Amino acid sequence: MSDFFANTDLSFKQQTLADSFVCMGRGLHTGLRVVMSVIPAEENTGIEFVRRDVTHTDNVVLARWDKVSDTELSTTISNANGIRVSTIEHLMAALNASGIDNARVILDAPEVPIMDGSSAPFIELIHKAGVVQQRAERQVIVINRPVGVTENKASASYLPSAVPWLDMSIDFSQRLIGRQRLSLPFTSQLFCEEVAGARTFGFEEHLMELKRRGLARGSSLDNAILIANDRVVNREGLRYADEFVRHKFLDAVGDLALAGHYVIGQFKGHRSGHRLNNQLLRELFASNCWEMMPLRQAHDIWVDFMQEQEARISKSA
Ligand SMILES: [Zn+2]
Questions:
Q1: How many angstroms separate the CA atoms of 167 and 203, rounded?
Q2: Measured between alpha carbons, how far is 136 from 46 in angstroms, rounded to an integer?
Q3: Ligand 1 center–CA 59 separation, angstroms
Q4: Rg of the chain (C-alpha set)
């Protein structure tokens, strides 16, 4: 019997960084320069953002679904005193896919640096810093019954599944993008190889309006794919033929990491963006479609299930 969990780095214990790392860059929307350090944190902290540029005594924002305060073009979290951090999703995806449960992210601006518009630079920095196991057991969310949200032609749902899985599809009127779909089990290796390098994208016809509204001020051809007249403007072209759906997949990993625990279930998203991804988590936690248990226990249930299936198949053969 092949053991899915043995082939992933889903550790039974919580994990944090072995060492800190620092990076510098600009915020995609604010255009502000930012220095960001990510440091190890103690067990059961989760991912915590600290705004060291604000004088308010409460400068900490927990990266959790119920702290999401804005989802227009990026995911923003805020604490009770209105201290906010925006565009957290690409970093959250990198931390989540690298198996980091606990970390503290210290910034001197209200937005995470955009780097190259993907998660790849963060993945590299995390790999260099290293990952260490902690003593506390890792708790996971197991999906027992389907739960979902829809909005116009978009939908997002979780279905019961023996292993973590994501299935994302998009449908754009622009011919360059059109319909694209990516369906993959969620493992660190697959995320790094198939998803991490996919960049954010935007349309030239929207750019002026966005900048006028104070958005996309830090965007450039070094941190986003720009599309004009159904063509990619960037000289280097695309990193993957279907880079657009891969980026939406990446965004979903980052947004859903705000569940605060790994989810053992299948995410199915169709045209799902930051807003709907967050709505799904709100719907999930308001429902009784899930159960929290140690990953070790979820794994044992999975092994029993697979053995039962195999016994049934060999009996009927
Ligand atoms: Zn994104």
A1: 25
A2: 12
A3: 25
A4: 20
| CA–CA separation, 246 and 185 (whole Å) | 14
For ligand 1, the distance from its centroid to the CA atom of residue 38, given in whole angstroms, is 20
pLDDT profile of the chain (317 residues), mean per 10: 56 96 96 97 98 94 98 96 97 97 98 98 97 96 97 97 94 96 94 97 93 92 96 97 98 98 97 98 98 93 80 79
The two tokens of residue 64 are 């959790």
- Residue 107, C-beta contacts closer than 8 angstroms, at least 6 positions apart: 34, 35, 36, 49, 50, 51, 52, 53, 85
Strands 266-270 and 165-171: parallel
Tell me the two tokens of residue 254: 């980052």
What's the 26 CA to ligand 1 centre distance in angstroms? 15
Backbone phi and psi for residue 288, each to the nearest 5 degrees, phi listed first: -115, 35
Rounded Cα distance, 226 and 117, in Å: 11
| Beta carbons of 272 and 255 less than 8 angstroms apart | no
| Residues classed as catalytic | 274
For ligand 1, the distance from its centroid to the CA atom of residue 293, given in whole angstroms, is: 30
**Cβ 149 vs Cβ 255: under 8 Å:** no
Check: CB of residue 19 under 8 Å from CB of residue 129: yes
- Listed in sequence order, the residues at least 6 apart from 168 whose beta carbon sits closer than 8 Å to its beta carbon are 181, 182, 183, 245, 248, 249, 252, 267, 269, 270, 272
**Type of residue numbered 158:** Y
Structure token digits, residue 2: 């092949």
Q: Sketch out the chain's domains with CATH numbers.
A: 13-298 (3.30.1700.10)
CA distance 215 to 29: 4
Enter the tokens of residue 283.
């719907």
CA 200–ligand 1 middle distance (angstroms): 5
pLDDT on residue 71: 96
Between the alpha carbon of residue 121 and those of residues 90, 101, 255, the distances in Å are 10, 19, 18
For residues 267 and 183, give the distance between their C-alpha atoms in angstroms, rounded to a whole number. 10
